[in-house]
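Self-study notes.
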Amino acid sequence: MFTGAGVPGDIPGGNRTEWPLTGGSVVLDLHHPWTYVFINLGLGANVSNFNYTLTPQFWNATGNGTLCVPELKLPSGLTVQDGTQASIQVVTVGDSGSGLYNVSLPPTTVGRPRL
C-alpha cells in the first residue's frame, strides 16, 4: 500500500512534510452537510497500518466548508524522535456509516521544525 495518493514513502530524497513533535495543524475542505472525522497516524516509510489515532473520539463536523484544527497533538505515551517517518490518514464517514473519504496524506517526517 502506498501513502500520499499512491506515492511510495521510501523514495530516496523524496519530499516529506514536516510535522512538529508538539503537534501540527490540519485544514480540511468538507463538502457534506455533516460528517464524522477521524485522523490516524502510521509510523514507518511505507505505512499499511494507521494504528495511532490523533482523534480519540471522532469529530462531528457540521456544515459545508472548512474545518480548521490549529493544533493536533500526537497521542500521549507515543514515543517518537526527531526524524521519525510517518503518514497521516484522514477518514470521513457519512450518515449511512459508509466512508465519504479515506485519504492518506503525503509522507510525513515527525520532528523539530526546520528554519
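Second protein, same conventions, sequence then structure:
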Amino acid sequence: MTIGPEIDARRAGAFPFVVAWIVILLTAGISAWTAFLGLGVWAPVIQFGIALFQTSLLFVLFMRLKGAPSLKWVCAVSGFFCMLYTELNIKWRLE
C-alpha cells in the first residue's frame, strides 16, 4: 500500500507530474519575485525554503526516490549538498 500519488513510470498517469511541473514553475516565479521585494535578511531564508520545496518535489516525483533508503538516496543527498556548497561558495565570492 502506497501513500500519495503513484510514481512508478509504468503505472502512473501524467497528471501528478504536470501538476508538479506547474508548481515548480510557480515557485520559481515566486522566488524571483521575492528577490525584488527588499526583504532584507529574510530574503535568503525564504528563497532557500522555496528551493528546498522545489528540490523535494524533484526528488520524490521526478527522481522516484519515494520509499526506503538506498544507494539512490545517498547519491541524491550528496549531490544536493554538493550543489548547495557550490551555490553558497559562488554567493560568498560575489559579495
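Instructor comment on the second fold: Helices lie at 15-35, 42-62, 71-94.
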